[in-house]
Amino acid sequence: MIRVIIPSQLGSLTDAPREVELDVAAPVTQRRILDALESAYPSLRGMLRDASTKKRRPMIRFFVAEEDISHDNADAELGDDVASGKEPFWIIAAISGG
């Protein structure tokens, strides 16, 4: 079971809870997690990634074990800690301004 933590800002705009558990087939990758998340919560489609290109939205970041993996290959395997649910896959809404 994969654990995904969703930003409260997106949760309030959609029907998605703050923490989600998903079944994701191996190998566990960013793309597979996001596909499963958008399938389970269709209201998230287009909010995390562009609906047609599947590229990450500029103000969205992905973290695993406190490491920003947003720019990593979306098809790179994330490892056993994520696949087992020990380590969650975090989705963070970046803040800009000054």
| Category from helices, strands and their pairing | alpha+beta
Describe the strand arrangement of the main beta sheet, using strand numbers: 2-1-5-3-4
Average predicted confidence as pLDDT: 91
Order of helices and strands: EHEHEEHE
Low-pLDDT regions: none
Question: How many domains, in number, for the residues?
Answer: 1
Largest sheet: 5 strands, mixed
As for the CATH topology, it is Ubiquitin-like (UB roll)
Report the strand count.
5
The helix fraction, in percent, is 10-25%
Explain briefly what this protein structure is.
This protein has 98 residues and is an alpha+beta fold.
Would you give an account of this structure?
This protein has a single domain, classed as Ubiquitin-like (UB roll) (Roll), CATH 3.10.20. It contains three helices and five strands. It has a five-stranded mixed sheet with strand order 2-1-5-3-4, with helices on one face. With about 100 residues, it is an alpha+beta fold. A hairpin with a 2-residue loop joins strand 3 and strand 4.
